[in-house]
Amino acid sequence: MSLVKDYYQGNYRNIPYKTISAAVVGLLYVLNPIDIIPDFIPFIGQVDDALVIGFCLRLMEKDLNKYKAWKSEQSMSKDGAKSEDKTSDNKDKNAKAKKKS
C-alpha cells in the first residue's frame, strides 16, 4: 500500500510496466467471480487464487525489493535531516547561552 501511495503522489515512479500489469492481472483474477476453480467449492476454490497471487508476487519481487531499499533510504535521509536540525538547534542554543554570559 505504501508503494501505491508513493506512486500516486509521484514520489516513486521507478516501477516497470510488467510489475504494474502483474499486480492488476492478479487483482482482477482474484476479484473476478469466474475463474478456473469456482470459489464456492470449500478450500479448493481458493487454491487457484493463492497460486495466481503467489505467481504475481514472484514476478514483482525484484521491484518490490528495490522500492523497499528506496523507502529505507528515504527514511534514513529524513532521520539524518532531523538529527542535523537538532544539532543546529543545540548549537544555536549554546551560542545564545554563551552570549548571555
Give the low-pLDDT segments: none
Shape: elongated
Counting copies of identical and different chains, the oligomeric state is single chain
Radius of gyration over alpha carbons? 24 Å
**H/E element sequence:** HHH
- The average pLDDT is 82
Strand content: under 5%
**Helix fraction bin:** over 70%
The structural class is mainly alpha
What characterizes the major β-sheet? Answer: none
Structurally, how many domains make up the residues?
Answer: 1
Distance between the termini: 53 Å
Strand tally is: 0
Q: How many H/I helices?
A: 3
Describe, in plain words, how this protein is organized in 3D.
It is a single chain. By secondary structure, the chain is mostly helical. The protein has one domain. The protein has 3 helices and no strands. The longest helix has 57 residues.
Write the layout of secondary structure elements.
Blueprint: H1 2-9, H2 17-31, H3 44-100
Can you give keywords for this protein?
101 residues; mainly alpha; 3 helices; elongated
Structure at a glance:
The protein is mainly α. The radius of gyration is 24 Å and the shape is elongated. The model has no long low-confidence stretch (mean pLDDT 82).
